[in-house]
Amino acid sequence: MEHTKKITNILTKFPESLLIGIGGSLMAIHLTLFWRDEDIVSVCLFFLFGANVWSLLKEKRHSLNLESGLFSSILGFLLLILVFINSIYQINFTILLALSPLISAFSLALIASGFPGLKQYWLELLTICFFSLRTLIPFIQRIDISLITAKFSYLLLWYTGFDVSRSGVLLNLPTGSVEVYSGCSGMVLILDTLSLAVLFLFMFDLTWKQKIVVPSVAAILAFIINGIRVCLMAVLVAEGDKQAFDYWHQGDGSLIFSMITAFIFCCFCWFLLSRNQRKIQQITDN
């Protein structure tokens, strides 16, 4: 009886160092998977989201109840085994691969504190959940905004003096045409920038109006930058410069637009924080 009790205690209470080791291993696995797929944006975003979760846990580590139940611990380890198997054999199951970071975080929370303790990690789990939404791009791309993007790019080209016409999602210039399909509609860039917006909302105290403005600016900015990218693609096709088109369409040049979007959005966030700081300073001085 006493022997069984000792085993139960071992399985329901884990040292903090072991939990940190498991968490670090999971992060390394997911970073490796994203890097293997040459998904640089996911690598950067996962690193940022992971750093934010680590910061949140570090702040409240002394108040966490690290005591789980036997069933919770076993279930957590079974889910982790599923994640490890998927990382090794690359099971062709898109949902599993997309939700792997969230499953890992949920499993680790179960092992650490059981079902009753999950409420301690609601913010961290919500953070990882938003990141997992980005990994569901193949499903989110079913929301096709190609026609809206084509109309916007057509207006940009027309207002800048190009002889352009539009037929559905097809942009026609005198010497070439480009089709705005779902992959170039801007949903990926919008989702990436919204991920940064969510991270910003989690990290800083903002008013409720600013919590609405920040993701709205992120989505609109990403849509506009992507529209400019589509215009560039149309001009390059019209000029017959296939090498430049491939570079800006699928090569390293495509990442430059993501970097520009992220930079402008970060400048907006910096401006917003500076404005809030000035208001606080004015209230303090008065």
Helix count from the secondary structure assignment: 13
Count all strands and give the number.
3
H and E string: HHHHHHHHHEEEHHHH
Gross morphology: globular
Regions with little confidence, pLDDT below 50 for 5+ residues: 1-12
Please outline the major beta sheet: 3 strands, antiparallel
Structural class: mainly alpha
**What is the straight-line distance between the termini?**
68 Å
Strand order of the largest sheet: 1-2-3
Question: Approximately how much helix is present in the residues?
Answer: over 70%
Mean pLDDT: 79
Q: Write down the Rg.
A: 23 Å
Beta-strand residue percentage: under 5%
Provide a descriptive summary of the structure in words.
- By secondary structure, the protein is mainly α.
- Helices cover 74% and strands 4% of the residues.
- The chain starts with a helix and ends with a helix.
What are the defining features of this structure?
286 residues, mainly alpha, 74% helix, 4% strand
Strand and helix map with partners:
Layout: H1 2-12, H2 16-36, H3 40-59, H4 70-89, H5 94-98, H6 100-113, H7 122-135, H8 137-140, H9 146-159, E1 165-167, E2 170-173, E3 176-179, H10 187-203, H11 208-239, H12 242-249, H13 253-285
Antiparallel strand pairs: 1-2, 2-3
Helix pairs in contact: 2-3, 2-6, 3-7, 3-10, 4-6, 6-7, 7-10, 9-11, 10-11, 10-13, 11-12, 11-13
